[in-house]
């Protein structure tokens, strides 16, 4: 963000012009939240976030709102664009005590927060939260660290947050995402700067989406092997296999012992069933393009031996659940010259990689580098990280996706896309995004078994997009 701002200023757009554009977006959102003419209290801080507040206050007053401006600190100490912004505000500048109002605008701290709010700053944040009126946060809810999604102390609980140019990690990672309320990203005319950190969206992976051609047959669409858990632990692999088919893999094979396959045979029709003791028995088939092991596998030496055999093969590979746990503390064992995607939740992640420092996207990136693999670090704010330094934060998963078996569906989705030749990072991002979209499609009270069906309309819509 700072780089984009510098580039715009160097190219001739004054910083104050950017501030005016930002403030116009704030005023627009405020007008959408408060009835015309209502009382709006704007709380400004000592930096440019406060500057946005002053300009927005002036715009709102022009538009007919009854605006009061409250400053934390002294007006005489404002500098640069913030001082110029304060001069635009012709009305009185009051202290931080808040009057009754229909809307509060939080312009205390933005991306310049550099420590936990204390004293008067902490009191001002607490007073906003206790006020009762909805809060519109300017750029970031004050007290939230935009880089990490964490709050070092007290933070504003906003109803809506309007940020500029692009969402920052703190808007997408929890608990930051919850503190923001509804997130609005306003364009302020900054140039696109090349970045390595993304908000997960169709544009990130859409260009790599595998589309079957007229002459495709089932093997050219990719063949996927899903290793099954044993008898009475087969449901997870079945969810994965059905999802891999739905993702577009031309053919999906469930493999495992005879008792396990007998259970599968009672449930599924489209997947092939192959009795095998070890994956190597099936890897001779050159048509096989991707493998998945882990769901229901069991934490035991047999699983470890199968995982090691699959790691040694030249197919794309997804390791989930128990297949990750059997490699506890050995991320280097995952290095291989073929696409590999890991799908740990926080517990499996810690078991495999140990305790890593930093915000979620940085931990996922460190793990991706250590393992040479694409890492999907799951949670309500899933992060996808690649060994080449790219990372994406996903924010489209509704809370009802937290249900037994949803991870098996995700693993199958990744495997199905890898089987079709999609590159690993893009396949992982697509799978996480579509998983979230499918659970939104299915709605509250979904079960994991609903997801492959709910994916169908979501996937069909992908083909309708221009
Ligand atoms: N970067 C950009 O391209 C643009 C930035 N704009 C605004 O400018 C903001 C960034 O401005 P600044 O860099 O001036 O930073 P902020 O205004 O976010 O905060 C910096 C000020 O707050 C003080 N401060 C930080 N943490 C504190 C704490 N815990 N307790 C007490 N004081 C604390 C600092 O000493 C400094 O005076 C953005 O969030 C955005 O609202 C917009 O005007 C549009 C363009
Ligand atoms: K703010």
Automatic annotation (TrEMBL):
The keyword Glycoprotein does not apply. One of its GO terms (molecular function) is ATP binding. The keyword Transmembrane helix does not apply. GO terms for biological process: metabolite repair; nicotinamide nucleotide metabolic process. (6S)-NADPHX binds at residues 48-52, 110-116, 139, 236, 296, 345, 408. Binds 1 potassium ion per subunit. AMP binds at residues 378-382, 407. Its EC number is 4.2.1.136, 5.1.99.6. It catalyses: (6R)-NADHX = (6S)-NADHX; (6R)-NADPHX = (6S)-NADPHX; (6S)-NADHX + ADP = AMP + phosphate + NADH + H(+); (6S)-NADPHX + ADP = AMP + phosphate + NADPH + H(+). Keywords: ATP-binding, Isomerase, Lyase, Metal-binding, Multifunctional enzyme, NAD, NADP, Nucleotide-binding, Potassium. K(+) binds at residues 49, 106, 142. Residues 1-196 form the YjeF N-terminal domain. Its cofactor is K(+); Mg(2+). Residues 201-462 form the YjeF C-terminal domain. HAMAP family: NADHX_dehydratase, NADHX_epimerase. Catalyzes the dehydration of the S-form of NAD(P)HX at the expense of ADP, which is converted to AMP. Together with NAD(P)HX epimerase, which catalyzes the epimerization of the S- and R-forms, the enzyme allows the repair of both epimers of NAD(P)HX, a damaged form of NAD(P)H that is a result of enzymatic or heat-dependent hydration. Catalyzes the epimerization of the S- and R-forms of NAD(P)HX, a damaged form of NAD(P)H that is a result of enzymatic or heat-dependent hydration. This is a prerequisite for the S-specific NAD(P)H-hydrate dehydratase to allow the repair of both epimers of NAD(P)HX. Homotetramer. In the N-terminal section; belongs to the NnrE/AIBP family. Belongs to the NnrE/AIBP family. This is Bifunctional NAD(P)H-hydrate repair enzyme.
């Amino acid at each position: 963000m700072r780089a984009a701002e510098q580039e715009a200023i160097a190219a001739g757009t004054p910083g104050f012009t950017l501030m005016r554009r930002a403030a116009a977006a704030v005023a627009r959102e405020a007008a959408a939240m408060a009835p015309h003419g209502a009382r709006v209290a704007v709380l400004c801080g000592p930096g440019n976030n406060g500057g946005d507040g002053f300009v927005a206050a002036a715009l709102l007053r022009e538009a007919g709102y009854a605006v009061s401006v409250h400053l934390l600190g002294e007006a005489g100490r404002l500098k640069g664009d913030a001082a110029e912004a304060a001069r635009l505000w012709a009305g009185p500048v009051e202290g931080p005590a808040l009057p009754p109002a229909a809307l509060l605008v939080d312009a205390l701290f933005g991306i310049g927060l550099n420590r936990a709010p204390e004293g008067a700053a902490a009191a001002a944040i607490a007073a906003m939260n206790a006020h009762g009126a909805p809060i519109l946060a300017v750029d970031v809810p004050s007290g939230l660290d935009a880089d990490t999604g964490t709050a070092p102390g007290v933070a504003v609980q906003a109803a809506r947050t309007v940020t500029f140019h692009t969402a920052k990690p703190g808007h997408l990672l929890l608990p930051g995402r919850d503190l923001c309320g509804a997130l609005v990203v306003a364009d302020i005319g900054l140039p696109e700067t090349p970045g390595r950190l993304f908000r997960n969206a169709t544009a990130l992976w859409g260009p790599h989406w595998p589309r079957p051609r007229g002459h495709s047959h089932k093997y050219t669409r990719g063949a996927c092997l899903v290793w099954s858990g044993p008898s009475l632990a087969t449901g997870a692999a079945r969810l994965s296999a059905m999802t891999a088919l739905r993702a577009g893999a031309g053919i999906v094979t469930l493999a495992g012992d005879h008792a396990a396959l007998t259970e599968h045979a009672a449930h599924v029709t489209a997947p092939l069933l192959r009795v095998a003791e070890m994956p190597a028995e099936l890897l001779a088939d050159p048509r096989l393009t991707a493998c998945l092991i882990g769901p229901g596998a069991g934490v035991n030496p047999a699983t470890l031996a199968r995982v090691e055999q699959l790691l040694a093969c030249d197919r794309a590979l997804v390791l989930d659940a128990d297949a990750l746990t059997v490699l506890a503390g050995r991320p280097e064992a995952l290095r291989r010259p073929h696409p590999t995607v890991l799908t740990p939740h926080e517990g499996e992640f810690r078991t495999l990689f140990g305790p890593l420092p930093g915000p979620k996207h940085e931990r996922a990136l460190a793990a991706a580098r250590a393992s040479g693999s694409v890492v999907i670090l799951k949670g309500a704010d899933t992060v996808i990280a690649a060994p080449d330094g790219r990372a994406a934060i996903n924010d489209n998963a509704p809370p009802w996706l937290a249900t037994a078996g949803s991870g098996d569906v995700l693993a199958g989705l990744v495997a199905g896309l890898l089987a079709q030749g999609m590159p690993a990072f893009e396949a992982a991002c697509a799978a996480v995004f579509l998983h979230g979209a499918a659970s939104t499609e299915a709605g509250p009270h979904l079960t994991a078994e609903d997801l492959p069906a709910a994916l169908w309309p979501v996937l069909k819509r992908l083909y309708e997009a221009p």
